[in-house]
Amino acid sequence: MALLNIINPSDPVLRRKAKKVTRFDGKLQNLIDDMIETMHDAPGIGLAAPQVSESLRLFVAHLEEDPDDENNSADGNDITIPGLGRIHVMINPRITYFSSESAVRTEGCLSLPGYLGDVCRALEISVKYTDRHGHKRKLNTNGWMARVIQHEYDHLEGELFIDKAEKIWLADQDSDDESKASN
Ligand code: ZN
């Protein structure tokens, strides 16, 4: 496994619509493993392939068990790390449902270190995706997980949270907020 370089926002890859993953080969498995390692090292709670210069429709997300997210346990395929929570690997995701109920919360992004912003997102979503073994899956989720998936999905469309944030500011570098919110 290796750490990948998280590219600068001026890199056009970050603004490109990513391509569908069609090959579930060893190269893809290595990329996924490297993305998980890079996300942990950053540290962040989500990382999309375009952020590491791979224009592919794929992201990884890592959330600690959240008592609000009781629906998340339905998908038995994701990796659970004792004491750390679950890693979701979503390939070619499609968000098929957005609740009309939404909320504004503060987000950050590993591609824009130091910046935070208040973003309005749907509280509940359904997402259809393919897992790393090529199996089709569906996840209904809410709360912070739903937010992270919407943020990562936007990366696949070439969009950044600053495009839709109501307010953007530079975080206090010592603040806890930043690492919690970075994806
Ligand atoms: Zn991001």
What would the keywords be for this entry?
183 residues; alpha+beta; Peptide Deformylase; six-stranded antiparallel β-sheet; three-stranded antiparallel β-sheet; 22% helix; binds zinc ion
In short:
The protein is α+β, with helices and mostly antiparallel strands. It contains four helices and nine strands.
Mean pLDDT: 88
Query: What is the total domain count?
Result: 1
Helix content: 10-25%
Contiguous low-pLDDT stretches (5 residues minimum) are 67-77
Share in β-strands: 25-35%
Query: Roughly how many Å apart are the termini?
Result: 20 Å
This entry's quaternary arrangement is single chain
Continuous helix count: 4
Which CATH class? Answer: Alpha Beta
In total, how many beta strands?
9
The largest β sheet comes out as: 6 strands, antiparallel
Order of helices and strands: HEEEEEEEEHHEH
Determine Rg (CA atoms, Å). 15 Å
CATH superfamily: Peptide deformylase
CATH architecture: Alpha-Beta Complex
Structural class designation:
alpha+beta
Q: Which descriptor suits the 3D outline?
A: globular
